[in-house]
Amino acid sequence: MKRIDYNKWLYSSYPEDIPRKIKKAIYGTKASKSKLRKEINKKSLKLCPRCRHKLFCENTGNMAAYPELWEYETCRYCGLVIGGADNSIGTDIIETAQYLVDNPNECGMEERPFKTLYEAVRYIGTDMKDYI
After folding, report:
1. Helix and strand counts by DSSP (H, E) for the chain
2. Residue-range definition of the domain harbouring residue 37
3. Does residue 107 share a domain with residue 49?
4. At residue 98, what are phi and psi to the nearest 5 degrees?
5. pLDDT digits (tens, 9 = 90+) for 18-77
């Protein structure tokens, strides 16, 4: 049987061109919602909140001139922004969700505060760029 070089596909610049079997071996199968909830409650994000696959972050690198800092980390599978930095210490989606749960009044969420960290992560998963 022919040995497959997964690194060739893992670091490919076109992840949509990866064959289905190799993509499944790299990213794993889609996790259940309960497994995602457990990961979020442990505050260790090993699964993407949107696509629920094993998380492979792709960093954009610094997108501004030297004294400035502006970068994003995205899920390689679905493109969700997981974290980033904009002239500050980097933040990720779990830290931001925890802040929204703890301080609903400061975030403009008085009418609909989040009860769980999972709800906040799913809400932020739509547009993390607004919170960086």
Report:
1. 5, 4
2. 31-131
3. yes
4. -65, -40
5. 777 777 777 778 888 888 888 888 887 888 888 888 877 777 777 788 778 888 888 878
